[in-house]
Amino acid sequence: MRRPAATFLLHLVLLVGAAAALAPLVWMVSASLMPTGEANSFPPRFFPSRATLLHYRELFTRLNLGRAFASSFIVATATTLVSLLFNSMAGYAFAKLRFPGRDRLFGGLLAAMVIPAPIAMLPLFLLLRSLGLVNSYAGVVLPAAATILGVFLIRQFARGIPDDFIDAARLEGAGELQIYRKIVLPLLRPVLTTLGVVTFLATWNDFIWPLIVLTDERRYTLPVALASLVGEHVQDTELMMAGSVLTVMPVLLLFLGLQKQYIEGITLGGVKE
Amino acid sequence: MAADRAPIPSEVRAAAIFLAPGLLVIGLFFLLPIGASVLLSLTDFDIYALGDSGNVRLVGLRNFTRLVQDPLFWISMRNTFYFVFVGGPLTLGVALGAALLLTSRLARWKGLFRTIFFAPYVTTLVAVAIVFRYLYHPRFGGLNRVLDFLGISPIDWLGDPRWAMPAIILLAVWKNFGYAMILFIAGLQAIPESLYEAARLDGAGSLQVFRKITLPMLAPTLLFLGIMTTIGYFQFFAEPYVMTGGGGPLNATLSTGLLMYKQGFRWWNMGYAATIAVVLGLVIFAFSALQFRIERRRNA
């Protein structure tokens, strides 16, 4: 094929693909702004005849989705912060501290990574129930407060910290905790940012576990609230689309803002040796 | 090397303190429940046991024999395999196609296209499943509108048992191909240009170059993505939960993950649900191991 023709065809395919990738998201926003009932008209319309914020108002007033938004925010923030702390402590220990059985212990953890998580779900629920953590934010956060993949990624990164830095601090009489806080954590910053964005997004989007643990409507995270809302309001397309926008927008914006770190994070996870 | 030195007591103590929180969480909330799952699958744990654990009895393999005779389980397995082995290759195929286009020397605005293709991946599955539910509406939905434009008669996407799975697979491909695309792009960029030049000097056509150079060099990425996609897709749950009212029509979208959820958390048959979980876990494990072996044999 001649070059100009090939270039044209390539971009045509890319444009059609981009339209297909974006159309559902654009329609979601567009339908959320339509007057009641307009999304159920025939033939279907893509853009509203006039834009209204009515459905967003209803979400926050009558349906109290602001509370679900707060729940999602609390759960995602807490999970991100706690897991960064626990994963970085363990990852640093595996990378830099010398103790007997280190490599065997780490190897065992890595091997356990192949076990699919849903197997654990039923006993985990019973365990949390016996700890009185069902229907609490802690019940959602704690099981995700440390992950093997997170420990692994931090360890890989922490191995790049020169031993001299740590030994010199020890000679100067710094305690181990001080070394971790003053030397290690600042040096881990790039990998912590990356892992933090990935964790926040994953927790925000998570569905099955909050659905199981949070039984009280007042503690529902956004995906759980949305899934329960669609049961009663399936006819209210515009309202449901406003709820979807409210759920998707924060993570989409976060991704657009921290795209570099996020993509780095998922590629890091992808090139495990 | 530092590792040769004898351990210093203060360092060992520090390691214990640093490891404790993480290992406690992983051990208590991941490893322990996995072991407990196997035990649970050997009991008749149900709603009465939930009230008083004195009601639990060991029933040996009775749950497993019940599972083998449960038509719903087999239907769910068929649906799950359909999703994994049609949806998985489709997702990776679209992703590889997009990655090849975006690494082409002719392509412009690569960064922008990459961001657009990747955007669906970061969205919330429940939210976009609801969006697609409306897009699939036979009369008011956008998809049939587009098909109408192309001269295809309307399809009752989520109402017709034959079309419900394809509809869910289409959503999964739309949402997930961006992730695989990013890894494919990274893999393609790691292939040395000199290999291509040498092949072209030998007079290889572009299809030959793709088969003899690109694909083999991408094998590690393909293996990783194959395994990740298989593991993820075997657990699909939210799509039928949100889109087809829990596995309809006529159980055409009932996934094994959804069946486990219903048995365990809706009907509180937790012993039986644990059996489903263990079997699903073994199936996932088997297929991951299989892909590893195929790849190893190819390298040998």
Q: How many H/I helices of chain A? A: 14
Judging by the overall fold, what is the CATH architecture of chain A? Orthogonal Bundle
Supply the helix-strand structural class of chain B. Answer: mainly alpha
Query: Ends of chain A: how far apart?
Result: 40 Å
CATH fold label of chain A: MetI-like fold
What does this molecule look like?
The complex is a heterodimer of chains A (273) and B (300). Chain A is 71% helix and 0% strand. Chain A is mainly α and 273 residues long. Chain A is globular and about 75 Å long. Chain B is built from 13 helices and no strands. The model of chain B has no long low-confidence stretch (mean pLDDT 93). Chain B is globular. Chain B is mainly α. In chain B, helix 4 (71-103) crosses helix 12. Chain B has a domain at 82-253: MetI-like (MetI-like fold). The chains are: A mainly alpha (273), B mainly alpha (300). Chains A and B meet through helix 1, helix 3, helix 4, helix 5 and helix 9 of A and helix 1, helix 4, helix 5, helix 6 and helix 8 of B.
Quickly list its features.
heterodimer; A: 273 residues; mainly alpha; MetI-like fold; 71% helix; B: 300 residues; 13 helices; 74% helix; 0% strand; globular
Please outline the helices and strands.
The complex is a heterodimer of chains A (273) and B (300).
Chain A: H1 3-32, H2 54-60, H3 65-96, H4 102-112, H5 121-130, H6 137-141, H7 148-158, H8 163-171, H9 176-187, H10 189-205, H11 208-213, H12 222-232, H13 237-257, H14 259-270
Helix pairs in contact in A: 1-13, 2-13, 3-7, 3-10, 8-9, 10-13, 10-14, 12-13
Chain B: H1 9-40, H2 47-51, H3 62-68, H4 71-103, H5 110-122, H6 125-135, H7 142-149, H8 161-189, H9 193-201, H10 206-234, H11 238-243, H12 256-266, H13 270-299
